[in-house]
Amino acid sequence: MCAALREARQASGIGVRELGRLLGISDANISLWENCHRIPNVETVAMILTAVRVSPEERERILDLARNVREPNWLTVGIEGIPQQLAGVVECERAATSIVEWIPMGIPGLLQTSDYTRTIKESSGLPQEDIELRVMISAGRRDVITRVNNPVQFEALIDEAGLREQIGSPAIMVDQLRHLNAMGERPNVVIRVVPRGVGWHPGWVGPFILFEFPDSSPVVYFEHYSSGAFVPTEHDVAAYKKAINRLRGIARSPEESSALIAEIAHQMEAAP
């Protein structure tokens, strides 16, 4: 939500001091809200959005974030167009300093090519205009790990089965695997593959993402088919940190993972 407030103000061309003067609020408080150091109440958020003159649709989206952000377990349900949980994930990605994602099937969203993302959305039966909108949003999300200044530290723990499952044509899948290895060469990105045949591990329960922030408590996010849940409770976060350490313990090293990804890409490319 904090990033959404900051972007709404910047889009309006209003500076922090000017907004503070308009609302009779100190610019220091506005900066604290925009940088996630404090959480404003819903009434204050509404007042800010009115001052910066956002569209009715954007106003409702940000107010929904504000209403739910204090919930102990924030469950977000999909809405027509862009799911609410996607908006929440995007805000977390922008504010985070570190992201760790475990995915048992497929490729993490931040590491997907546009063709791979488009193929998944087409398979879900969405209208073409919604598909292209979500592909565009997905491409924009990658900026958090590719930007020049302070890119987020991203670690992907991927099950080997997800790499071998062909999504789209062989060409799309080969391009995706090569893109994965190219992203893994970035200093802020670590990719580790959990091999087959290691027996039960905590990742069997399902995918999850751990977000860590500079000045607020970490949050675990679970994505479902048409809804998602944000869980900030300390004992749950601690349990998932242990799960991440367990997955790291059985995963291949980044170098071994890169070699395996390249091998799978070669096999797919050589297949008749």
Automatic annotation (TrEMBL):
Annotated HTH cro/C1-type domain residues: 5-59
Superkingdom in the source lineage: Bacteria
Coiled coil: none
MF (Gene Ontology): DNA binding
Cross-referenced Pfam families: DUF5753, HTH_31
Name of the protein: Transcriptional regulator
Organism: Gandjariella thermophila
